[in-house]
Amino acid sequence: MSQSNTPLLIVEDDLALQKQIKWSLDRFESVTASDRESALLQVRRHQPAVVTMDLGLPPDPDSVSEGFKLLEQILDVDPATKVIVLTGQNDQANALRAVAMGAYDFLAKPFEPDVLNLTIERAYRLAELQAENRRLQALHQPDALAGLITRDADMLRIARTIERVASSDATVLLLGESGTGKEVLAQGLHTASKRKGRFVAINCAAIPENLLESELFGYERGAFTGAAKTTPGKIETANDGTLMLDEIGDLPHSLQAKLLRFLQQRTIERLGGRNEIAVDVRVVCATHQDLKQLIAEGRFREDLYYRLAEIVVNIPPLRSRTGDAVLLAHAFLRRFSQEQRRGSLSFSEDAIKAIEQHPWPGNVRELLNALKRASIMAETDRLSCDDLGLPAPATGEPGAERSDLDLRTVREAAERTAIVGALARSNGNIVKASEILGVSRPTLYDLMRRLSIK
Ligand SMILES: Nc1ncnc2c1ncn2[C@@H]1O[C@H](COP(=O)(O)OP(=O)(O)OP(=O)(O)O)[C@@H](O)[C@H]1O
Ligand SMILES: [Mg+2]
């Protein structure tokens, strides 16, 4: 995440010189460190796009080994970081070695403040261009479900199901709380199906009963008062495409019978019309209601249910998806900072924890709205829980109780939670995630393969 308003990190063990550098670079916001450990901490904390560093660092300031180690570690955390190495006079060999290792540039001490300022400015500009480039590349994913952001095992399984059934004509019933992404999945199903026609959605709960029939089936001119011209309904409009019946649980009883007839015969008759019109549509339904319960109460036809429920997809609420809240939060924040032209916004540690702890009853939509509001309203670039309208996070993890005592299952579940959580927190960066987890990169790759985490 290299962007222009991340602070500059100045690594210099001579405190007087450190002060002097900071002072001569006062047009950049900067943070400082005087040894390798504290520098790495600053790197993780601020994700600086540009770093200036001395190669001779304690405990052995006369050798360059700590400096090279630090350079390597900074680039491990984020290879896009622009590191400018400040070397002693006559130390060209080390300067060249640093550049060979991936440093952006080097300057010999004592440096000219103007030259250093310019070098840093150029580094920021390059970092910004590269970040923009990465963003544009990410936009070009042709995947049907590319808009679906998740790393949760259940959601990934659902995405695979959607892709697998897309090419069939099977009716799909999407069940999930409000804001869980039913429409996103329905659209994904349509895109993956490669059906030539349109994706047409109609919300059965939002339209009064008397209008819903003509909305769905269309009408002939003069069918009723006000029917000035023949108008095709949504079903017909979706011919060769996909029809999404949203909030299907709210479909009035009279229309349930009519819809069932359409699903059996695959023809419709417009209101006031006499012709049967053949329509080829894939139907996908969604509801947040418990259809089984509605059937038990006599409010939903069982025979219609079985027509609609050829494939049933239960979408988990956001609170039970591992790591997704933070993952989505990062993605939305990036999207909104670009839309609001606010440079790069980021989260405070507390904000991240608060996002992890909030139950998100309104699911992804609630999270999306919270981030949109925060990205417009926040007074600083580092969003706090206050900015997100969330309570400060509780300290200490609540002891998760497990009923499942099979050690292997417990261990795998714990590993999965930690890995998915670390990947979410590091925004998918494997190097950072392996650091958070305290394992090497190859080990993390192995674990991900074993636990089928993508
Ligand atoms: N996994 C996801 N990745 C990215 N964006 C998502 C995801 N899930 C949902 N969204 C976004 O969240 C918002 C709500 O999603 P959607 O409209 O699909 O929910 P829904 O289940 O249809 O909700 P409702 O029941 O209220 O109609 C949309 O703006 C959608 O783009
Ligand atoms: Mg919806």
Gross morphology: elongated
The number of distinct β-strands equals: 16
Q: List all distinct small molecules, including ions and cofactors, that are bound in this structure.
A: adenosine-5'-triphosphate, magnesium ion
Unreliably modeled segments = 397-403
Strand content: 5-15%
**How many individual helices?**
18
| Ends apart, CA distance between termini | 21 Å
Q: Averaged pLDDT, please?
A: 89
Biggest sheet descriptor: 5 strands, parallel
Portion of residues within helices: 40-55%
Q: Tell me the radius of gyration.
A: 29 Å
Side by side, the strands of the main sheet go 2-1-3-4-5
Broad structural category? alpha/beta
Structural features:
454 residues; alpha/beta; five-stranded parallel sheet; 18 helices; 16 strands; binds adenosine-5'-triphosphate; binds magnesium ion
What does this 3D model show about the protein?
The chain is of the alpha/beta class and 454 residues long. 47% of the residues lie in helices and 13% in strands. The strands form 5 sheets. Strands 2-1-3-4-5 form a 5-stranded parallel beta sheet, with helices on both faces. The longest helix is centred in the first third of the chain and has 27 residues. About 2% of the residues have low confidence. Bound molecules: adenosine-5'-triphosphate and magnesium ion. Magnesium ion binds next to helix 7.
